[in-house]
């Protein structure tokens, strides 16, 4: 009995160490990917696209939402030192990414199957898009106005779509679908990787039916 207990404790410590190391590696990868963000012509230039949410989603699916949030938190802190927006862009990225990785991790851990991970990612992507409207409208853009005036912001939106008249219109027309696509892409890339890595990080893994 003692040998069995000792073996269990050693296995748990090994798993915890592996989890910590893997989370740190994903955080580093996410930070690097965030540095290679780029603009897309169909949205204003301050809405940049990047693939940094992929490691966070993968961490959340394999090790739980706490690991996913840790990845995006480290990414935000590291990139604040080279921020072109006074940290506002990093704050927005952190908040919005939380809306994706937390539901994905919670649902994925509740429904312990690949189907559960898919459902979690879908729910997370939709919440990420919808809640980005509220977070941008009530928090991020009021802060960002200290760097760029609202008129200048709206001018960039109107240059693409002259029919956009209010900030809320702009968020619904541009930010929401842009964020949804970003979440879907991050999920689509993360899910196959999760299916491969899940047996390594989930001791209760069972073969999918």
The total count of strands amounts to: 2
What is the number of helical segments per DSSP (H or I, 4+ residues)?
A: 7
Mean pLDDT: 89
How do the strands of the widest beta sheet line up side by side?
A: 1-2
Q: What spatial form do the alpha-carbon principal axes imply?
A: globular
Run of helices and strands: HEEHHHHHH
- Report the structural category: mainly alpha
CATH class descriptor: Mainly Alpha
CATH topology: Arp2/3 complex 21 kDa subunit ARPC3
Instruction: List segments where confidence is low: pLDDT < 50 over at least 5 consecutive residues.
Output: 204-209
Distance between the termini: 34 Å
The CATH architecture designation is Orthogonal Bundle
Q: What count of structural domains?
A: 1
Evaluate the radius of gyration. Answer: 19 Å
How much strand? under 5%
Largest sheet features: 2 strands, antiparallel
Percentage of residues assigned to helices? over 70%
């Amino acid at each position: 009995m003692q040998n069995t207990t000792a073996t269990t404790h050693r296995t748990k410590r090994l798993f915890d160490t592996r989890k910590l190391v893997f989370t740190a590696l994903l955080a580093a990868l996410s930070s690097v990917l965030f540095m290679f963000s780029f603009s897309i012509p169909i949205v204003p230039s301050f809405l940049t696209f990047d693939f940094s949410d992929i490691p966070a989603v993968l961490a959340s699916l394999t090790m739980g939402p706490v690991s996913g949030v840790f990845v995006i938190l480290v990414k935000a802190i590291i990139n604040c030192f080279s921020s072109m927006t006074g940290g506002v862009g990093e704050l927005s990225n952190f908040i919005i990414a939380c809306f994706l990785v937390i539901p994905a991790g919670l649902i994925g851990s509740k429904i312990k199957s690949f189907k559960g991970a898919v459902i979690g990612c879908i729910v997370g992507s939709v919440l990420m898009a919808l809640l980005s409207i509220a977070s941008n409208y009530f928090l991020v853009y009021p802060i960002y106005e200290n760097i760029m005036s609202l008129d200048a912001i709206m001018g960039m939106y109107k240059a693409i779509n002259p029919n956009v008249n209010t900030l809320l219109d702009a968020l619904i027309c541009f930010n929401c679908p842009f964020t949804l696509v970003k979440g879907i892409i991050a999920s689509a890339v993360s899910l196959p990787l999760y299916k491969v890595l899940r047996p390594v990080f989930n001791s209760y893994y069972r073969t999918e039916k």
